[in-house]
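In the design runs reported in the main text, the only information available to the sequence generator was the tokenized backbone. The following block is the verbatim input for one such run; it is reproduced so that readers can re-run the procedure and compare outputs position by position.
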């Protein structure tokens, strides 16, 4: 357990490090990037998300899944690894040729704004998308290998290159959003290229069509799901682009990035514990039920803490650190974006068995249901509440995703009750959500000087409840760390 806590903590920190650095760079970037430039970055992110689906067609997920079937056979594992990397490169070359012909037509059809063209922004976004896909596969390989040194080295080098790239493109060359995209694309592609040259220096390039067909059989069904998922997760920004100005889209994009600190933490925690969880589930031994349940409870607990912590600090951070006051108006809705990750946490918990037991054919149905509800909510709430309506719809989408996923899991009888004994965690989430609603609805009745303290109510509720309900678990963790300190 001590090694699990140690390694998980390191993986979480490495996953969170890029966002932490971006957080530190916020005062600088907001001085060089206007809200309109952040709007262009939002369009770039939407385009990148869409083309990335067709560049890997689920191969990254397939490799992560089949890794555990072959990891003990090193030559076979290399064949899978080499095949997936080369397949992504080949597919990307084909897609790039198609976009050279019809890229601008597609962009003008989907987006209202006409400043973003494939010939400039789009090409560099494509390079960035390809590099990030390969980067994700490489990190997945070393995470599953539990090779912490390579994982850490690759992550930190990429981060360093990215920071330099952004600073050169945005600050030194003063190229705004375009400089940001170019800087990141050169950084990611440079690191990935250096890694591939190093990895294959004494290994052969291998493509096994049998393995590729096997992975495609698993991954391709993800494509419709990923398209719907992208539409679902990006619906808010697309609605902002269609119904609001580029400046308002940029402000929302910046707010979304700050609120997504929680999502980065969620996926960092998930990536730290998921290999262990999948291994335990693959062994299909009842002796592991308790550990799987503990992993689910830990995941829930630390993510809820991250949510209430960001709710507490976002207001003072914005007013004290972001000197460009044109961004301060986002404080009226950014708490809604942060709390929306609470139902998403439940979606991630209940989707694990669906993924593990290869019930992925239900994922498009789940996401389509959430998309339909979210689209309806946006069309109703935007005329009534404006940007607040977009944020409220984002919460509704995530609640729908969680509810439908839980329903499907129960109908398929793949939600093992011993893995989901979350009674105390459920009550914690309810209390935090109620405290948040109370704070958000009453905030306007208090002066700004008092709001910082009032916004801490969800955090206070979390701490008070945890000290009572999770006293035993807290003592165990403290004991483990104290023993480790004594051994040192």
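Verbatim output:
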């Amino acid at each position: 357990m001590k090694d699990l806590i140690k390694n998980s903590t390191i993986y979480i920190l490495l996953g969170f490090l890029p966002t932490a650095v971006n957080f530190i760079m916020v005062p600088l970037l907001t001085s060089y990037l206007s809200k309109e430039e952040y709007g262009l970055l939002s369009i770039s992110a939407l385009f990148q998300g869409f083309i990335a689906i067709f560049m890997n067609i689920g191969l990254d997920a397939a490799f992560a899944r089949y890794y555990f079937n072959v990891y003990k056979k090193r030559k076979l594992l290399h064949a899978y690894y080499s095949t997936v990397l080369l397949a992504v490169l080949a597919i990307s070359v084909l897609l790039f040729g198609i976009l050279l012909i019809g890229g601008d037509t597609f962009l003008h059809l989907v987006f209202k704004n006409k400043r973003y063209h494939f010939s400039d922004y789009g090409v560099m976004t494509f390079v960035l998308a390809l590099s990030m896909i390969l980067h994700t596969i490489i990190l997945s390989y070393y995470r599953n290998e539990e090779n912490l040194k390579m994982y850490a080295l690759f992550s930190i080098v990429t981060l360093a290159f990215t920071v330099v790239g952004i600073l050169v493109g945005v600050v030194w060359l003063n190229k705004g959003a375009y400089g940001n995209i170019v800087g990141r694309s050169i950084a990611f592609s440079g690191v990935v290229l250096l890694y591939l040259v190093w990895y294959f220096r004494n290994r052969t390039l291998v493509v096994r069509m049998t393995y590729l067909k096997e992975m495609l059989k698993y991954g391709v069904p993800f494509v419709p799901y990923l398209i719907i998922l992208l539409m679902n997760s990006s619906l808010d920004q697309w609605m902002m682009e269609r119904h609001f100005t580029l400046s308002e889209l940029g402000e929302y994009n910046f707010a979304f990035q700050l609120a997504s600190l929680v999502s980065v933490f969620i996926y960092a925690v998930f990536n730290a514990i998921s290999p262990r969880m999948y291994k335990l589930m693959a062994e299909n031994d009842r002796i592991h039920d308790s550990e799987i349940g503990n992993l689910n409870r830990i995941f829930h607990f630390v993510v809820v803490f991250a949510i209430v912590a960001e709710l507490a600090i976002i207001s003072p951070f914005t007013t004290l650190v972001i000197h460009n006051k044109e961004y301060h108006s986002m404080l009226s809705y950014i708490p809604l974006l942060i709390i929306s990750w609470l139902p998403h946490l439940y979606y991630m918990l209940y989707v694990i068995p669906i993924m593990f037991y290869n019930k992925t054919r239900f994922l498009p149905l789940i996401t389509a249901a959430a998309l339909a509800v979210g689209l309806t909510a946006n069309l109703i709430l935007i005329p009534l509440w404006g940007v607040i309506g977009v944020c409220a719809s984002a919460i509704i989408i995530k609640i729908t995703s969680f509810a439908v996923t839980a329903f499907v899991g129960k109908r398929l009888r793949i939600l093992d009750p011993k893995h989901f004994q979350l009674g105390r965690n459920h009550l914690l989430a309810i209390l935090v959500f109620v405290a948040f609603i109370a704070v958000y609805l009453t905030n306007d009745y208090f002066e700004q000087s008092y709001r910082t303290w009032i916004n801490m109510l969800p955090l206070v509720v979390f701490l008070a409840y945890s000290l009572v309900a999770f006293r035993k678990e807290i003592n165990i963790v403290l004991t483990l760390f104290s023993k480790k300190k004594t051994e040192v």
